[in-house]
Known about the structure:
Layout: H1 7-17, H2 29-40, H3 45-55, H4 59-66, E1 80-85, H5 88-92, H6 95-106, E2 112-113, E3 119-124, E4 136-138, E5 141-143, H7 148-159, H8 175-182, H9 200-212, H10 228-245, H11 315-323, H12 353-363, H13 377-394, H14 398-407
Parallel strand pairs: 1-3
Antiparallel strand pairs: 1-4, 2-3, 4-5
Helix pairs in contact: 1-2, 2-3, 2-8, 3-4, 6-7
Amino acid sequence: MTTTFTDETRERARDIIARYPADRSRSALLPLLHLVQAEEGYVSPAGVAFCAEVLGLNKAQVGAVATFYTMYKRKPTGDFLVSVCTNTMCNVLGGQEVYDTLAEHLGVGHDETTADGTITLEHAECLAACDYGPVMTVNYDFFDGVDSSTAVGVVDELRAGGRPMPTRGARLCTLKEMAVQLAGFADERDGAVADGGPGEPTLRGLRLAQQHGVSVPGFDPNTPIRSKAEADKAAAEAKAKAEAAKPAPVEASAAPVKGGDGASAPTGAAGVAEPAKPAEATGPAKPAEATGPAKPAEASGSTTRDVKAPDDKSPQVRTAETRQPDAGTAVPDAPGTKVPTDGTGTAPEAGDARAAEAAGVAANAPAGDGKPAGDEAGAQERNLTEAKAGTDADGAGPADANETGAQK
C-alpha cells in the first residue's frame, strides 16, 4: 500500500527538522516517526520511506530505529492502546490477572487489535508507577489501582464511544492525537491539557520525612537557581581562592643527589639536600682503596629494560598479545606473555600480524552516518546492469539468472 502524506504532514515535518542544527538533522527522526504514526496510526513502509526521504537517510537506517522502540507500531493499531503492567510490583498486586481478564473479555492477545478496530491490547514490562499498582494506561494516560472489574469497565466504555477520565492528567485522546503531541505539537482540543496534583502514594515518603524530621542537611528550598554565568563565576572565584591558599614552594639550595636506584638521597630536616662539606686539610689525599672490580647489578628477572609490563596496557591488548603475540615485538619474560614456538622451543620469525591488520583496516573503511556500507549507489546500478546484460544475452529468466549467478 502506498500512502501519499498530506501537505500538513509535510509542513510539520519541515518544522520538526528546523528545530535541529543543519548538520544534526538526523536527530529529528524520533519525532518524525511519531508524525507519520499520527497520520496512519502506525509506522508503515510508506512512513519509513517518507522519513528517509526528508532526512536524506536510507530506509534501513529508519527501520532500525522504528523497530527498536515499542512506541512505534509496525502494524495497524486501534484508536486506544491499552497497556497493562505485568512487571514485578504490579504483578504481585494482581496485574497479570487484570491482563488475563482483558484478553479473554476482548478476545485478543498481546499486540492484537479487536475486530472493530477500537482497542489494541498489550502487556507492558513497566509503566513507572509502582506506587499506584496495579496500573494500566490508555494511550499512555494512567488508570491507577485497577482490578479486573474496573479494567473491563474502562474498555467497555471505550468501545461504546465514551472517554473515561484517567486517574491523573487530561481527558483521553486517540492514539493518532497522542502521536501529534509526541511529535512536539500542542493539542488544541478543549480539555486536552489539564493540571493535576500528586497522588497520596507519591506524597507518602514526603509525609513520613516531615513526621520524623528527616531533611537534607543545609538544604534551603528558597535558594534561587543560579544561571550558568553566575555558576561559572563562582567556580572561577573558588579556584582562585584555592590557588592563593596553597603554600609557596620551598626552593632547594642544592640539587638532590640521586641514589643508585634512581631515588633521591635523604635530605636534611627541612627537606633540602645539605651542601657538600669541604674536605679537611689533613695532608695529601689518600689513594682509594682497592676493593676489586665493581660487582654487576643483580638480575631483576627481566632481560629487557624500559619496557612497560602488560598490566599497563588495556585488557583487550594484553589478552590479544598473550594469545598470539608478534614474535618480533613480544617480551619473552614479561608476566602473562607467552611467545609461540615451532615445537622445538625456538620462536618463529617476526610475524606480519600488524601488516595484515593494517591491510584489513585500509580495505574496510568505516561506514559514515549518511551512507553506511553496502549502500553505494554506483555498485547497485552496476550490479543491476550486469544482471540485465546477462539475462538479455542468454534469454534466461529470473530463476535461470539466479542459477547462473550461483554457478559463477
